Amino acid sequence: MSNQTFFVSPKFDKKPIYNSPTNKYQEFTNVYVYSIIVKIENGTPNCAKFCDAAAKEWSKIKNKDK
Q1: Where in the chain are the domains?
Q2: To bridge 54 with a disulfide, which of 10, 15, 16, 29 should be the other Cys (CB 3.0-4.6 Å)?
Q3: How far apart are CA 60 and CA 66, in angstroms?
Q4: 61 Cβ partners below 8 Å, 6+ apart?
Q5: What DSSP string runs through 13-38?
Q6: What is the pLDDT of residues 29-49, one digit of tens each?
Q7: Who contacts 66 (Cβ-Cβ below 8 Å, separation ≥6)?
Q8: What angle do CA 9, 46, 59 make, to 5 degrees?
């Protein structure tokens, strides 16, 4: 066994929710959903559920800015 295998990170599908994000909300959603995929170590997440969670987090951030 090679020592190098310890440093290999798991592979996750980096397919974004929005292919060409046009605003900050879409960029945030892509990053938020990917971060959840990495945290739960699941390459095939329920995107609808995570998009709802991203929308709630986004509204918290938007309210904080005001």
Answers
A1: 22-66
A2: 29
A3: 10
A4: 28
A5: ----SSSS--SHHHHHHHHHHHHHHH
A6: 888 888 888 787 766 667 788
A7: none
A8: 95
Copy the structure tokens of residue 14: 């980096």
DSSP 1: -
Given a cut of 70, whether residue 2 has pLDDT beyond it is: no
User: Could you give the C-alpha distances from 10 to 1, 6, 15, 44, 56, in angstroms and in order?
Assistant: 17, 11, 15, 14, 28
Distance CA 31, CA 27 (A): 6
Helix (H, G, I), strand (E, B) or coil at 63: helix
φ, ψ at 5 (rounded to 5°): -65, -25
